[in-house]
Structure formats: C-alpha cells, structure tokens
C-alpha cells in the first residue's frame, strides 16, 4: 500500500525509508516553494544572458533531495543492478539488456525541452530550468510493466504539476503530450520500424496534475542512468510502465487526446489510459499477477487495481467504464 500522511507537496525532514533498505543517502531539507519560483524566473534570464546553468548534481553524480511520505510499504526495493540492467527503451533495442549496453551513446548534456501549445508561456528550456533541482524529493514507487513484471524503485525528482504549472496552461489545454528524443546515430534501435518514432505519450491534464505524477531525474540517490531515461522521464505509478516516457524533449499542451505510441501500434492491446487493472486482461495474457524482478525466478505478487494507488487516483475515473477506457 501507499502511505501518505502529509500533504503531497509538503517535504518532511524525517527519513521514511527503513535503514536496512539502503544506507547511501544524503537527505537534506529543500528550501520550498518560494525558491522554486525564483529558480524558474532566474533560469529564463540565465538562458538569455548565457550564464552557466545552475548546478544540478554533485561531482560524483549524486543528488541532494528530501524524502516524502510517498512510499510503498509492501515489498523490498528492487536491487539497483536489476533497475539499471533490465529495461525497456526500444530506441536502443528490444532486448531487456540492450538499453544498459547501448544507451551510453545518447548525449544528455546539454539537454533542452520544447514546451508548446495552449499555455501562457512556451519556449525552449534547458532541463536545469524546467526542474527545480533545489527541491528534489524521493518517492518509492512501484513500476508495473504491461508485460506483467514489476519493480520497486526509489525515484528522485519533482511533482509533474510543479513543472507544468509554471507554463500556466490555458483552459484549452485538456491533455498534455510528451515526446522522446530521437537521434539515429545515437539510438541504434530506431533504425528498425519497431515503433513509429519518436516515442510519444500523453495524459489528461487532470491526471498529469495529480500529486502522484512525477518527473524523475534520478534513482537510488544518483542522476538517472541513460537506460532509465536520462535526463528526465515521467513516472506515472498507477499506469502501466509504458506511460512513463523516457528522455523527454517535448511537452505540448493540447486540446484533443494525443497520439500515443503503443496505442498507435496496437490499439486493441494498448489504450490511451492504460491504468493498471488486474481485472482487464491484455488480449494475449492475464494482468492478474506479476513477476517481481530481482527477487528470484518464482517471486510473484497479485497485481492491484491502479497498481495499489487507487486511493489517490480513483476519483479521476469516476463514472468512466474502465473496460472501455483501457
Ligand atoms: N522513450 C521510451 N520510453 C519508455 C519506453 C521506451 O521503449 N521508450 N519503454 C516504457 C516501458 S514499456 C517501461 S516498462 C518503462 C521501463 O522503465 P525502466 O527501464 O526505467 O524500468 O519505460 C517506459 N518508457
Ligand atoms: Mo512496460
């Protein structure tokens, strides 16, 4: 189950992760909302004046962050070797070990993100200007792949809403669409028409603004490895893993449901919503249970509705038929 005692955006100074889970942590208190706003305003002018980008990670690649009360209490963390060695990132190949092997070829610094569509502010921003690195938090979320396996990962990042709100989306913005980086030299997998590149995903705006929706820039205390979607990737914990789009270069506020890669490739198998739902089988396999990655060949658990996050997100779908809207 998911524990949430404090308001989602409120950072706490208590270390909520049981110590035996992992010891190499550097929690600090973040400065809070006022600083976040200044960082953004300052960042825009920094870009104009050509000043150096704000310092984001420590020299050894570690990040400073506070912990929140968002955490999973049933299940151990997935070993870091499995989190970074067993991946889906088809731009680097369809094998689970292809991303770890080949994603180093991707250039992630500098990195800019284009923000377009129905919003008061749009433009191109460096990742350091989109994400407030002085307000990072850690959230232990389960990622449940549509392929019926799951991992529990200590992510580091910021609420997605904290990024989106700064652009002041207008009332025409009903959805938000995301696009992954595409580079034929650096991504060997895109030479094959496995998917219609670039990889695209989307959320209804109210889903994107839900406090659980998270933009990750790190995991296990350090900046994201490329294979996990450096420098920033979504984590939408109540949806199947493919909604958690990696290495984002475009964010668009749109009025119609955007095209999403997996729905486009097999609409009978993958819908726009893709909420984790043990009662709705994939046409080719059951979604009732899942393999626990990194816990031995036979470790399984029952899949929970909304991946266990129902308390926080069920209201988003009140009155909707989730068999129709899969
Ligand atoms: N750009 C891009 N994002 C992607 C994918 C991908 O192939 N390309 N795979 C998705 C799938 S199916 C899953 S399960 C998660 C896996 O994230 P992880 O490798 O960090 O565990 O990334 C998602 N994001
Ligand atoms: Mo997945």
Automatic annotation (TrEMBL):
Binds 1 Mo-molybdopterin (Mo-MPT) cofactor per subunit. Its cofactor is Mo-molybdopterin. Keywords: Metal-binding, Molybdenum, Oxidoreductase, Signal. Predicted to be exported by the Tat system. The position of the signal peptide cleavage has not been experimentally proven. Mo-molybdopterin binds at residues 87, 90-91, 145, 180, 228, 233, 244-246. Its EC number is 1.8.5.-. GO terms for molecular function: oxidoreductase activity. It comes from the Bacteria. It catalyses: L-methionyl-[protein] + a quinone + H2O = L-methionyl-(R)-S-oxide-[protein] + a quinol; L-methionyl-[protein] + a quinone + H2O = L-methionyl-(S)-S-oxide-[protein] + a quinol. PROSITE patterns: TAT (PS51318). Coiled coil: none annotated. It is an enzyme of class 1 (oxidoreductase). Residues 107-262 form the Oxidoreductase molybdopterin-binding domain. Heterodimer of a catalytic subunit (MsrP) and a heme-binding subunit (MsrQ). Belongs to the MsrP family. Part of the MsrPQ system that repairs oxidized periplasmic proteins containing methionine sulfoxide residues (Met-O), using respiratory chain electrons. Thus protects these proteins from oxidative-stress damage caused by reactive species of oxygen and chlorine generated by the host defense mechanisms. MsrPQ is essential for the maintenance of envelope integrity under bleach stress, rescuing a wide series of structurally unrelated periplasmic proteins from methionine oxidation. This is Protein-methionine-sulfoxide reductase catalytic subunit MsrP. It comes from Hyphobacterium marinum.
